[in-house]
Amino acid sequence: MAITIKDVARLAEVSPATVSRVIADHPKITPKTKRKVRLAMDELGYYPNFQARNLVAQKSKAIGVVMENSTTLAFQNPFFPEVLRGISVSAHQSQYGLYLSTSATEQEIYEEVVAMTQGKRVDGVILLYSKMDDKILDYLLANGVPFSVVGRPYTRPDAISYVDNDNIAIAKEVVDHLISLGHRDISFVGGASDFIVSSDRLSGYRQALAEAEIPFTPEYVVTQEAMEGQEQQAICKLMKQKKPPTAIVTHDDLVAYEVISYLEDLNIAVPADVSIVGFNNHTLSSHLKPPLSTVDISIFDLGLEAANLVLEKINDGNAAPRNIVVPATLIERASCQSL
Predict the structure, then answer these.
(1) I need a surface site. Which of 119, 204, 207, 242 has the fewest CB within 10 A?
(2) Which CATH number fits domain 5-48: 3.20.20.140, 1.10.260.40, 3.30.70.890, 1.10.3720.10?
(3) Where does the HTH lacI-type domain start and stop, copy by copy (predicted)?
């Protein structure tokens, strides 16, 4: 015979309505009563209907997670499984599930976010990216949806909860390191130019050059747009300049892997001919030959803190926006050497 709320109420010596309120985590129920009811539930082996509980509480107990592109492409990058692992740990502690965006195009993702928030499928949203003129961020902000961002927002950072690295400082540290090894001709192979992380790292790159009184060479900067569909040609063009770079900073370890492959095709050796540094410290990076110098950006912590921030907003609509800076660390390996 199935155990019912009435059975729990009888054992706990409370009313069935009180049991329902405990299941819904009603704030007016005392901790003592909650403990008594939960002990009765455990003793009887009663498992509440959480869908019913969520209807009572008017919450979905789900967090929407929005990626910069489709999940098929996103999961090709080790960044996303790791950031989701951090989000999942925080969500699990608060008994929340995750609702992943599955759309492919920017417009489809926007429509999906509108549907998931207007349809009350989620209580809040985490954006796993930050880019210029993002209408999804604008929509969330304008409609009072609880949300957080992994990355510095392009607008109103004081009004938005976000977590990020100090990308300007860490990019500057990377270039300073290469300069200390004697390099002056340093290339920057970046991500999409409309993403804030790309512009911040480019700023750090330029700051380091300026402080070392090294002229900025626009031809040494290769954006994702310039490489799209013709990555090998872009790297070939970079290395066949009259004065090719002796060091390359890449936006991501995955980009570094590609660049190293193209350099091998050109009979250019790493690090004998060119030093190279990546970002994100993917597991494979330490096993390359040579092992890749990279920046550990604490991906798990980015996800964990992003989830903590959105849960703060979900649980307290009046909570002040918070900005969290997660440490990033340069890991020196054998892909760099002195000139």
Answers:
(1) 242
(2) 1.10.260.40
(3) 3-57
What distance in Å separates the CA atoms of residue 206 and residue 218, rounded to the nearest whole number? 10
Backbone angles phi, psi at 131, to 5 degrees: -140, 165
Question: 62-165+299-326 domain in CATH 2.20.28.10?
Answer: no
- Residues 239, 245: Cα–Cα separation, whole Å: 7
Residue 169: count of CB within 10 angstroms of its CB: 15
Q: How far apart are CA 196 and CA 256, in angstroms?
A: 20
The residue type found at 71 is: T
Cα separation of 243 and 220, whole Å? 10
CA–CA separation, 137 and 44 (whole Å): 46
d(CA 63, CA 289): 40
Exposed, middle or buried, 230 (CB in 10 Å: 0-12/13-18/19+)? exposed
> What are the tokens at 283?
């597991």
339 residues of the chain, pLDDT tens digit each: 678 889 989 999 999 889 888 877 777 889 899 999 989 988 888 877 655 555 455 678 999 999 986 555 566 789 999 999 999 999 999 999 999 988 888 899 999 999 999 988 999 999 999 999 999 999 999 999 999 999 999 999 999 999 999 999 999 999 999 999 999 999 999 888 999 999 999 999 999 999 999 999 999 999 988 888 899 999 999 999 999 999 999 999 999 999 999 999 999 999 999 999 999 999 999 999 999 999 999 999 999 999 999 999 999 989 999 999 999 999 999 999 999
Contact 186, 247 (CB under 8 A): yes
